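note to self: the first set is below, dont mix up w the second
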Amino acid sequence: ERSTAPSVNGISKQNKWTEITPDKYHDWINQRDESFYEHSVMGNKDSKSDEIGFFNSYSRGVATSRDAWCWNYSRKITNSNMTKMVEFYNSEVQKSLNLSYTGKVNDFINNDATKISWNRSLKNDFTKQKTPEFDNKKIVKGLYRPFTKAWIYFDKNFNDMIYQIPKLFPNYTSENKIIYISGSGSSGKRFSALMSENLPDLNMQHSGGQGFPLYLYNDSKSDGLTDIILNKAMTSYPNENITKEDIFFYVYGILHSEDYFLKYGENLSKTLPRVPFVKSEKDFFLFSIAGRELAELHLNYETMECYPVTLETGGKSITEFENEDYYVTKMKYAKNGKDKDLTTVIYNNQITIKNIPVEAYEYIVNGKPALDWVMERQGVSTDKKSQITNDANDWAIETMGNAKYPLELFQRVITVSLETMKIVKSLPKLDI
């Protein structure tokens, strides 16, 4: 109970102490809702457990341990950087063969951070004298952060951990959809889920996320969802012809439910989601339809309508702009006194975005508004160690063929944010 006492002794005198008891999970505060464990888990990798979850398998995102080298907005630069790094690594191996390497790897290798990024796994490969070759086909599109695509050199030899990602995206032509959720132990950040058709970086969601796929690729393409969960859904809703795809989007809808988060938020911060089946068939399909609508927004954000903001362009008409006029290095908020003015963003020296609806900032993913991810990532940065520059304008020109891409992306994500919250607020009550 709250007390205004100036000291601990004062609390005792006022008899304001409340005794708390940890639950069986050893939570002293922010205790979990026990009913959470009555529902099926999204996935289960515990070989000692007989419990079957929604998905046959799932995976963390790719952890490269050398993002500056493996991720870049420019495919050409990714190609160049990784070609040079692979060649340099192999030259180090060859040098070790020529000089009768003694096994003290840290004393032998060249640690010039502008030539290579060493980590434990690459040093282990070095001691085994592995000499992998660069393969241009391993440069694929990935989702680095929310609403931020880039090119990644996807290769187990030069990515620290690829986990089960080859089962989700085995090659550069693989088609899939995954529900990528934030990891447990979320450090105070709210749980979130975001769908992707591209392989994700580990930190596309906070705390090292997990991706749950519509399909799995082993020797052949198979369903990501389990037969048992399909049978459970068909038993729960016997009058409907339910498919695994319906369930996939139902899960996505449920994970966006405010009721679901309010009831199970403490559980979600500590363990994988468990997903209830709602009582009525009608609500099941309302959640599933909403999940499809959310997926449409989140997968196709680059083609959504640009929200009609006001663009101030100084004395120059935007119809006269050349490609270089859209070049962005760092977007920033305008100021309203000492506070940020969320309605106004300074895009570059020539363009100011005005009349941004503040409601757009309600859509939070990976710990902050989706618009903040666009502002943070659509710019230019240089890695201090490697001196590699990552320029979002390269993605705009090289991949999208559109110098206005960063500006339009901001406008499109306004639309995505507003429409997302409209769907979220229209979801049915969680009646389970």
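second set (the one i keep forgetting abt)
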Amino acid sequence: PRQLTISPQTSIAVGHIWQTVASILSVRSDLDVTTVKSGHSVDVLARGVSKLEVIRQITDFGSVGVQNRVLCIGDQGAWPGNDFTLLSTPHSLSAGTVSGCPNSCWNLAPAGVVESHATLLYLRKLKVRSGHFRFSIE
């Protein structure tokens, strides 16, 4: 009820749909929404809807206790990507586009390795020891 997803039924580029929707909504000051896009759809989100809520839920539920100890992986790290906010956290990796932030949203995958292939590469290279994680990417 707090998210509207718009998916093209034709070959219209998602970027064009995002630009149109964001333009229309930008002049509606009575609506408190954010518009983001993925590789296949555009999402209109109500205030407070964010993938950062996943981190809050994990830290509240588990024993992590510190928000910046959660590893986040997404593929749409550049604005207006739907992972932009999630990948702004300290331990974040992109499996696609990256933001301009120098402290987060790194893409460590080899050139041409993207999306699920990059995510699997990251997970295979992840080593957990004594409550810490480390990557062994050459």
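remember for set 2: The helical segments are 14-26, 52-61, 115-125.
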